[in-house]
Structure formats: structure tokens, C-alpha cells
Amino acid sequence: MAGSIERVTKAAKEAGLEIEVKRMGASTRTSQEAAAQCGCSVAQIVKSLIFQGETSDGLYLFLMQGSSRLDLRKAEALTGEPLKRADPRLIRERTGFAIGGVSPIGHMSAVKTYAENGLLLHETVWAAAGAHDAVFSARPNTLVAAARATVADIAE
Ligand code: 5CA
Questions:
Q1: CATH code, domain carrying 102
Q2: Overall domain count for the chain
Q3: Residue 29 Cα, ligand 1 centroid: separation in angstroms?
Q4: Rounded to the nearest whole angstrom, what is the distance from the C-alpha of residue 73 to the centroid of ligand 1?
Q5: Per-residue pLDDT reduced to its tens digit, 108-130
Q6: What is the mean pLDDT of the segment spanning 30-35?
Q7: Is 102 a residue whose pLDDT tops 90?
Q8: Contact 28, 128 (CB under 8 A)
Q9: Dist. CA 96–CA 151, nearest whole Å
Q10: Is 34 touching ligand 1 by the criterion CB < 6 Å?
Q11: What's the domain range around 32?
């Protein structure tokens, strides 16, 4: 999507996070593909999962290790409402990102964000930068701060 990478770069800058967006020239749509391209473990890939509140209609972003699965019950306990997977078209409309390129930062409108505590165990993590072949690396604590994410135990 036009301007998506620029939005990520701008959001990083505004949060005081220095990032270098890398176009890999091959798909980084999935955690496995991204790990292969980045030469890191799947756990070091940040999955950006978007869910929608059944009651509020609002979107939530869950930042997970690539190797983890979101525990929906834990997630719903945090959000205080039942959650469902957001429709890809809705994700595009509200965040400005297409599935496979959803970034932890730079959304068109603010999204309430939670981060898996296990992400902080890594020295470096890699996240999507707004396109299906674009990534950036960061220290997890600075990325979590830039995303204004609440760190929690949300993995299965
Ligand atoms: N670029 C990589 C990592 S840097 C990436 O975006 N990975 S991801 O895990 O954050 O994004 C893919 C995720 O999108 C999948 O794990 C899946 O949870 C979600 N997804 C895939 N297809 C759909 C769909 N049809 N509807 C909603 N979510 C989907």
C-alpha cells in the first residue's frame, strides 16, 4: 500500500526509534519467511495480529513472538470483551496495512496494543515495516515503547 513504509519510518522517528527498513526482495509475509530472509530465529520475528472487539467494534493489536500463539482467553481477559479475527479489508481500512505487512507502529488510527512478555527475552527482534517484503530490526524494549504496548502474558 502506497505510503505504508513511510508511515512506519515516520512513527519510529516520532518515537525516537532509529530504524532502517530493509526491502528483502522476497516475501516476508509469514514469520517463517521473514526469519529465513532475516537470518534469525522464528521467535525473533514479531507477529502483528489484529483482532476486533465484538462489543466495541474496535481493533486490538497483539505483538507476538513468531513462534508463539495468542491465547485468546488471556487476550479477552485484558481487553474485557470477546475478540474475533479482524477482516483483512477492515484491517486495511483502519490501519493502512495489508495482512503480511502489518507493522507494530505507524497505523492510520491508534490501535490499543499488547505485547507478549516473551518478546523482551531477545536481544534483537524483526518486525514488518508496512509491505510484504519490508522489515526492520529493533531492541524489543524500544519497539514495545514505540508501539505504546502493554506487556503481558498473552501466549498459549
Ligand atoms: N511480515 C510478517 C512478519 S515480519 C507478518 O506480517 N507476519 S504476521 O504473523 O504478523 O502476519 C501474518 C498473520 O496474519 C498470520 O499469522 C495470521 O494470523 C494473520 N492472517 C493471515 N490471514 C488472515 C486473514 N485472512 N484474516 C485475518 N488475519 C489473517
A1: 3.90.960.10
A2: 1
A3: 7
A4: 19
A5: 999 999 999 999 999 999 999 99
A6: 98
A7: yes
A8: yes
A9: 24
A10: yes
A11: 2-152
